[in-house]
Each structure stands twice: as structure tokens, then as C-alpha cells.
Design goal:
It is an enzyme of class 2 (transferase). By secondary structure, the protein is of the alpha/beta class. It is 33% helix and 17% strand. The chain folds into two domains: 36 residues, no CATH class; 223 residues, 2-enoyl-CoA Hydratase, Chain A, domain 1. The strands form two sheets. A seven-stranded mixed sheet has the order 3-4-5-6-7-8-9, sandwiched between helices. Bound molecules: zinc ion (ZN).
Length: 281
């Protein structure tokens, strides 16, 4: 019955190359191209088990990673954007917002919530890059300001997770005002001696970097995050010089004194807990 016995030895297909796996079960790392089972990827906090590439994730994933048993209460969940300038580019701004809401299931580029992290009460605001490039308009500013108010009122630490392309051009000047508003609120938190940790993820740029993202008692970043104000091309053209290697990477920014430390996402919850534990003693 030789039909049923394998004659050639050593014909082996590594599990990740087996074809019969249904779509969506495998994640391919964009950096090292290794295929990882989505369950394993999730278990590793959406980092690559081979090269440690940190996949860009959104507010929901951060809330699940940080809040105990994923139990949290969202603040201002339904707040959505107006159109103060009647702005039109290729689309009317309200149409663009509506289309993005439908596509992402989000109301704007930030979500805020309170809950417990390893038993410690905390308020967290996390940005969603999928919503118009994580741009900061009035809603983002207002929701962050209100989340800070919540922290103040309940005397609990505030964690901001930034991932943003900067100000939202469709709200122009109104976007820029959010920088002053959030910064002023953070000053109140500082006066009340309530800790504020700012986590910068890939990418954090523009008006977000120029306001709340860099105002933490601790400014920390995820590995490999791009952090800057203007993009490298604009800077190169302005100063007329080539930029150093690794310019605007988290490592570079840390080396130049703008960050306190870089934290692997897998250790984020525990590191934050011990840091805040020390600050509250
Ligand atoms: Zn990888």
C-alpha cells in the first residue's frame, strides 16, 4: 500500500506558508515580512515577535491593553465635529467627517476613558490615526481638555497616547487654538500635582508635538516612532542642509534629550504602573 506512505523524507512546509489558512488569520509584519498568527500578534500587544516592529494600533487596542479586564467608561463618546469655516476641498468637510465616521466607526481622532490599570485609577486619551490622519481639530482638543478635567476632579493620573499628523487643516485657526487650550488645562493638572504621562507613538508630528504631547511630566515613546514638528523635507529645504541619519526617530529624539525613555508596548502597562506608583508615594 505504498500509495499511502510518504516516500520522500523532508518535505515540510513551515506552518506560516500553509495555504489553507483562511484570510485574516495571519498578519504579515511590514518590516521583516514574517507571517505571524493574528492570535500571537495580539498576545504580543501587536508587536512583531521576530523584529519587534510595533504595528500602528488605535484607541480601542490601547484601552484593551491598559484597562484591567478591558473595563472602562468612555467620556464624551458622541462628540463630533462642526464645520466652523464651511470648509471645502475635494469634499465638503461635513461629508468628509461623515464618510470617515462610517469607514472607521469612530466619531473623531481621539477617544478618552477612565478605568483602572493594575488596580490604579487612571484617565486615558488615545488618538486614532485612521480618522483624518489623527488630526487635531476642535473635538480632539475639547475631548482632551475634558479628560484632563476629569483627572483633576478625581485626582487621578492622566495618560495621553498621541498618534497624529498635526492640526486639522479643515478647521485652520480653530485647530491651533486647541494647542493653547490643552496646554492651559495641563498647567492646572501640574498645579494640582497630578501626574501626566505623554506616550508618543508612530507618528507624532505638527501641532500635537508642539503642545500636549511634549508637556508630560514624563514624555515617553514607542520604539521606532517618528517624532517631529515639520517633516524632514520641509526642514531640509528651510535650513539648506542634509539631515543626520535616523533624524526624528524615537532613538534620536531620546538621545537629544526630548524623551525620558522608550517603552516596549508589551511592557507598557507594567512600566506605567510602577512609574505612577513611584510618583504617588
Ligand atoms: Zn517583523
Amino acid at each position: 500500500m505504498s500509495w499511502f506512505t510518504r516516500k520522500d523524507k523532508g518535505i515540510q512546509t513551515p506552518t506560516e506558508f500553509k495555504r489553507e489558512a483562511p484570510d485574516g488569520l495571519w498578519y504579515q509584519c511590514p518590516s521583516c515580512k514574517k507571517a505571524i498568527h493574528t492570535r500571537e500578534h495580539r498576545l504580543f500587544a501587536y508587536t512583531c515577535s521576530n523584529c519587534n516592529y510595533h504595528e500602528k494600533i488605535g484607541s480601542q487596542d490601547y484601552f484593551e491593553l491598559l484597562f484591567d479586564q478591558t473595563r472602562y467608561t468612555e467620556l464624551d463618546a458622541l462628540m463630533s465635529s462642526g464645520d466652523p469655516l464651511n470648509f471645502v476641498d475635494t469634499k465638503n468637510y461635513p461629508d468628509r467627517v461623515k464618510a470617515t465616521e462610517l469607514k472607521t466607526g469612530l466619531k473623531d481622532a481621539v477617544r478618552s476613558a477612565y478605568g483602572e490599570m493594575n488596580g490604579m485609577p487612571i484617565t486615558v486619551a488615545a488618538m486614532d490615526f485612521s480618522f483624518i490622519g489623527g488630526s487635531m481639530g476642535s473635538v480632539v482638543g475639547e475631548k482632551i481638555a475634558r479628560a484632563i478635567d476629569y483627572s483633576l476632579e478625581h485626582k487621578q493620573p492622566f495618560l495621553m497616547i498621541s498618534r497624529s499628523g498635526g492640526a486639522r487643516m479643515m478647521e485652520a485657526g480653530f485647530s491651533l487654538m486647541q494647542m493653547a487650550k490643552t496646554s492651559a488645562r495641563l498647567a492646572l493638572l501640574d498645579e494640582a500635582k497630578i501626574p501626566y504621562i505623554s506616550l508618543l507613538t508612530d507618528p507624532t508630528t505638527g501641532g500635537v508635538t508642539a503642545s500636549f504631547a511634549m508637556l508630560g511630566d514624563f514624555n515617553i515613546a514607542e520604539p521606532g516612532a517618528l517624532i517631529g514638528f515639520a517633516g524632514p523635507r520641509v526642514i531640509r529645504e528651510t535650513i539648506g542642509k542634509d539631515l543626520p541619519k535616523g533624524f526624528q526617530s524615537a532613538d534620536f529624539v531620546l538621545e537629544h534629550g526630548f524623551l525620558d525613555f522608550i517603552v516596549d508596548r508589551k511592557d507598557l502597562k507594567d512600566k506605567l504602573t510602577s512609574l505612577l506608583g513611584m510618583l504617588q508615594k
